[in-house]
Every structure is written in C-alpha cells, then in structure tokens.
Design goal:
- It is a single chain.
- By secondary structure, this protein is mainly beta.
- It contains 3 helices and 31 strands.
- Strands 1, 2, 3, 4, 6, 7, 9 and 11 form an 8-stranded mixed β-sheet that branches. Strands 22-24-25-26-27 form a 5-stranded parallel β-sheet. It has a 4-stranded mixed β-sheet with strand order 19-20-21-23, with no helix packed on it.
C-alpha cells in the first residue's frame, strides 16, 4: 500500500510539473471547445471522459527550425479550472498535412515527433507525406491506426509499431522508399492491402504466427527484399525458398522483389492480386503449367519485363483488356517483350484476345511439362474457359493428355 501511494504521488508531481508549463501557454477559444498549444490545435472529443483530439498542427515557421519538432502533450488543463485535466487520446486524420500555396499535393513539415502513451487512435494520413522525419515510434497505447498513416514519407527510415496492434492498415507505409526497418508485432492479425508497397529499401519481412489475413499487394514492389521469413506456427501462410504462399501453396502471396527473374513454382494455381507487380527491376516471369487462371492478377506495373514464359498448354484465363479494366501487362511489354509458349499451343495463344496482343510470340519444345495420360479430352473456349457441354459447330480447344488442338466440334 505504501509503495502504491509513493508511485501515485510521484505521478501527480510529474503531472503537475508539466501542467504548470502547459497552462501558461494553452489558449482556449471563447466557447471552450478548442485549445491551441505549441502550434497544435485540439478539440474536446468527449466532455464526459475529458479527452482531447489533435486536429491540426502548424509545422511551418521559417524563422524557427525547432518549430518542426513536435512533442504532443499527454494532458492539457481546461479553460477555467486547472484542476480539470483533459487527456489527449486521438490524432485526427490529416492532422499534420498542409498544402502550400500553388501546390497540388500535400506535404508534412515534421522533422521529429513524440507521441504520448495516452494516445489510442491515429487517423488516416496523420503522419504521411513527410520529407524530413526519419523515425516514428508509436507508443504501445495505440490500438488503431488509419490507412496511409505514414505513406509517401520520403525520408522515413525506421518505424516502431505498437505492441498489441492487431491491424496494419491499407497502404500504411506506401511508397516509403527509404524505409529500412519496420518490425511487425506478434499481436498483428491483419496486414492491409498495399501496406508496404514500394518500400524499396526494406530488405526483411517477418510474418508472425498470428497473422490471418494479408491484403492484395501488401509487399509488392519491394526491390531490396531477398526473402520472406515466417513463424513456423502460422496456420494460414508458409514460406518456401523465401517466397510467401498461402498454407496449401496454391496461391502466391508475396514475391521477394530483389529477385529480378520470377519463376513461379509448379503447383501454384493463383497469383494474389499484385503479388508480383510494381517492380522497377523485374526482367522476366515464368508461369507454371498449373497456373491456368490469372483473373484478378495484375502485372501491368512491371514495365521492364523483356521475357514472359507461359507453360500451360491452354492460354490462362485473364481479365479482358477493355475500357475500365486494367490490362494484364503494360502496353510497352505487349509491344516489346517476348512471350514464350508451348510449341503445340502457338495458334491458341496467337488467337487469344489478351495473349495475342504480344507482338513477339515465340515457341520452344519442352516449354510445357504436362505428362501424357489416357484421360478423356477436355474442351475450352478460345479465351481459355472450360466448356463442359460443347455446342455442335463451335470452335474450341480440345486438350487430351499433353496435346491441344483447335477444332470445330
């Protein structure tokens, strides 16, 4: 009991000491709903709970570089009664963003930031678009982080996420090109889509045991990543040869972007969204015979590809390149890269509405590795979709064992 009283008194003394300084500089508006302190504007989030939300921070002062170094207060006194203390619990979305006169995009002038242990929620883009901030340490009190929270921060090198965080939001660190370290806490269950896309300096990713969901393209365009690592107790994902898969290895979830020549292993049936997209250095892609459906997969931002090998005898199904639908490859790749297909399937690929867009289609014996068998033939439409009940007179691809041919049924 005595020890408890001791710590309580120490806390009160520390709090009163900080409040004395803050009370002298804290300015409230007339109705007592907003206050201004050290370039930061707060409003009352809950009068009942005595909580404040940081809604805006002025980080521009050409005469004072220290103005860009912000320490967010944990507590602020009320307007009329210093004994009534408000706790800062939220940083609102876009709190530190400004759009300078004549600019068409936002920026953030922060050079340093210290977030108190009282904060539990941080909104969308709250710390995004920085160009001087090198590190962010989220206190363990934070349980919710908004999308794009630190995105487009061109100087950010280190991020410490809070222990206890369950969701890394969508596009959390998108295009943080010099980010070198961001440890994913063991508590995380969900990694949102595009969370670390284009983090081109991040060379290691460790997936904890509790991760249940990884969004589309969460690790796309990570050109320094040599391999993924994962807790062997994870029940939803696995890593083999440094590549991230779902547990049964049917879906490729993440590709180590430092490997410029992509070889998708045999047995993979699906590439998750943008798992191997958004690379500046990728030069070739080799797709296995088992991969027959590319709907929902995108490779259109890999503009330096010069060779694509497809081993399936039947052209894989893919999104039609029509208005409003993203193409499978960039127009530069369709025009300049070589598409290598099985010799016996050349005509089918050439006639395909998407694969046939390649200006340079090559064939080679042995591209396909399908074993002979005595199974009954199967039929496919020219765009690669299986036809269970062919109509007489229709033009189809008939596949039997290791051979495929175009026929009129």
């Amino acid at each position: 009991m005595l020890q408890y009283i001791k710590y309580l008194l120490m806390g009160v003394m520390l709090l009163l000491g900080s409040l004395t300084i803050e009370a002298n500089e804290c300015e409230w508006n007339e109705d007592g709903t907003e206050c201004y302190f050290n370039g930061m504007r707060f409003w009352i989030e809950s009068e009942k709970d005595l909580t404040l939300c940081l809604i805006y921070c002025d980080t521009w002062n050409e005469n004072d570089e220290d103005w860009r170094k912000k320490v967010i207060p944990a507590y602020l006194p009320s307007m009329n009664d210093a004994a009534v203390i408000y706790k800062v619990t939220t940083i609102e979305k876009d709190a530190f963003l400004i759009i300078p006169s004549g600019w068409h995009y936002p920026t953030c002038e922060l050079a340093e930031i210290e977030i108190p242990e009282t904060v539990v929620r941080i909104g969308e883009r709250a710390l995004a678009y920085t160009y001087m901030l090198k590190e962010i340490q989220f206190p363990n009190s934070v349980s919710e982080i908004g999308g794009e929270c630190v995105a487009y921060s061109s100087s950010l090198e280190y991020v410490k996420l809070p222990e206890g965080l369950k969701v890394i939001p969508e596009a959390f660190a998108y295009a943080c090109s010099v980010l070198q370290e961001c440890v994913i806490p063991e508590s995380v269950e969900t990694i949102g889509k595009l969370a670390f896309t284009r983090c081109r300096s991040l060379d290691k990713v460790y997936i904890p045991a509790g991760v249940k969901s990884i969004g589309n393209g969460a690790f796309a365009g990570m050109d320094s990543l040599e391999s993924f690592e994962i807790d062997p107790d994870n029940e939803n994902y696995c890593v083999k040869d440094g590549i991230l898969f779902d547990k049964d290895m049917k879906t490729l979830v993440g590709w180590p972007g430092a490997r410029t020549e992509v070889v998708v292993p045999e047995g993979v049936e699906r590439i998750a969204g943008e798992a191997i997209n958004r690379s500046d250095i990728m030069t070739s892609i080799d797709l296995p015979e088992s991969l027959t459906d590319l709907r929902g997969s995108f490779l259109d931002d890999n503009k330096n590809l010069n060779k694509i090998t497809v081993r399936s005898l039947t052209p894989p199904i893919c999104n039609e390149a029509q208005e409003g639908v993203r193409p499978l490859f960039a127009k530069e790749v369709f025009a300049e890269a070589e598409l290598w297909v099985p010799d016996e399937s050349y005509e089918e690929y050439k006639a395909h509405p998407v694969w046939g867009k390649f200006a340079h289609i090559r064939t080679a014996a042995g591209v396909s590795a399908v074993a002979d068998d005595d199974s009954a033939p199967t039929y496919y439409s020219l765009d690669g979709q299986k036809v269970d009940t062919p109509e007489p007179g229709s033009i189809l691809i008939r596949r039997s064992g290791s051979t495929a041919e175009k026929i009129r049924y």
